[in-house]
Amino acid sequence: MTDWDADEAVSQLYAAHFTRLVRLSFLLIHDHERAEELVQDTFVALHGRWRRLHDPHKALAYLRQSVVNRSRSELRHRAVVDRNPVQPPPPKESAEDTAIAGSVRDHMLAAVDRLPRRQREVLILRYFLDLSEAEIADTLRISRGSVKSHSSRGITALRAAWGAVR
Q1: Structural domain count of the chain
Q2: Residue in 26, 67, 24, 75 with CA at minimum distance from that of residue 44
Q3: Rounded to an integer, what distance in angstroms lies between the CA atom of residue 104 and that of residue 100?
Q4: What CATH number does the domain containing 135 carry?
Q5: Does residue 12 share a domain with residue 79?
Q6: 111-130 pLDDT, tens per residue?
Q7: Domain interval for residue 160
Q8: Rounded distance, CA 55 to CA 112, Å?
């Protein structure tokens, strides 16, 4: 083997040890097709490094260690993939859905704009800034009872406006 060129040496090693090396990888990763790929990659790498191999008699040991290392890498890769599953992209809205949503939003904003000032302020602070009744009362310097009253009247007016649009 010492005086063989890379093609001849790797061909001989492949014929003699491919099946056993695939079995080794399969026992480590439990995927026959992937085990064959890893072993093929190992032989390709050996072929490319044949001239730099210090002791060609240790080529089989090199192949075994390489198959074990590649199998370990495969298992690490799988663990990372399992921990970080790919999220499917959110469904895309059609142009029609986008136009309808825009129209609905425009009607709702117009209805909010038609509310009396206090009702509009209370609803915006409540539903857009997510403030509590106490926080709204402090912000507008009105009582909590007034906040409840303006909120109730504003929602009733919006429901009436919404019913007219639909």
Answers
A1: 2
A2: 67
A3: 6
A4: 1.10.10.10
A5: yes
A6: 889 999 999 999 999 988 89
A7: 112-165
A8: 83
